[in-house]
Known about the structure:
Rossmann fold, 5-stranded mixed sheet
Amino acid sequence: MTAESVPTPVHHLPSYLDKNNLGPWEIYLEQVNRVTPYLGKLAYWAETLKRPKRILIVDIPIHLDDGSVAHFEGYRVQHNISRGPAKGGIRYHQDVTLSEVMALSAWMTIKNAAVNLPFGGGKGGIRIDPRGYSQGELQRLTRRFTTEIGLIIGPEKDIPAPDVNTNPQIMAWMMDTYSMNVGRTATGVVTGKPVQLGGSLGRSDATGRGVFVAGAQALKKMGIALEGARVAVQGFGNVGNAAARIFHDHGAKIVAVQDVTGTIYNAGGIDPNKLLKHLSDTKSVQGFEDSETLEKDQFWELECEVMIPAALEKQITEANANKIKAKLIVEGANGPTTPAADDILHEHGVVIVPDVLANAGGVTVSYFEWVQDFSSFFWTEDEINARLDRIMAEAFNSLWDVADTHKVTLRTAAYIVACTRVLEARALRGLYP
């Protein structure tokens, strides 16, 4: 039976979706809808992309330091595993929702396929503000959460990693807890671990390094010199500060940095290495030497060649897209630009390197870590960086060519490539039973 002769599949709206308040998931669905016309016969399987494979919602009760018991809600979503085990981070944040985790897991599916890693997409989170809890409480939280989701994670099933407000120590607790529960040391169950426990060299800066490689490739295609290019960075956590440092090291000028503590600007350039020390000492970017403080919304209006949103999703919207003067946006965060803002920026000639490519450096080095853990053979940091640079550059140039061929944005090109790879795997595997 040919694809043309197969009847149209029957689609039912999943019960967990609220049509009136989809949040980040709605953004993802709109992105899939936009790319469907480019999928040809594979569009028959497109509904596969609109439904997570598996959703686990767990209650996490722990003893607090004062002896009381607190309950937290946690999630692990496996969006698609057609091309390999689910892969994606765990975030601890007070605003974590199911809609957000669903969207993030789906973006991981797209991201892994866009750079051709042998993974599907997954994501997890706990609704908690970790700043209000002790190390002991966070350890108990992590260990209980790991035990609760232990039903579906594993080195060949679903491999978590760090994300917002999680780090190598939390990954070490997750790895240890899973290992205790299965009765053997299973280093490959998570990535982003400390190097002493099977982590990979180069992992801490990998996402920011990938942002730089993608941005540098885009500037080259656009005919804009990297040397002296003005860069504005939103978010100065792991991704933002690494991207800023590497751009700075290659001669670009970091003119503005914004994080939750404020926005600073210096037309002559900000040294991100000194800013990192200032932030460590004062817990704020404000008050940094030779910089002026701006209002939050002024960040979007700055004259610059490159803007790097590396904070949370939905930062660039209809409300501020018209104000942006940057020629290039490199999305260090997941889902920072809404579809409506995408359209506005495209009309203004702004090139966007989408999150599913721009911030794929982290998961790429996570893939390296996973491979190294299976083989117990570890590479040098120079080898890691060289492999990362090659994969990111090749993926960018491939997407640029697809965008040029179809006369579409880089985001649409990324979705064309990624959705095609995922749905080809789905079609070849068929349906069981």
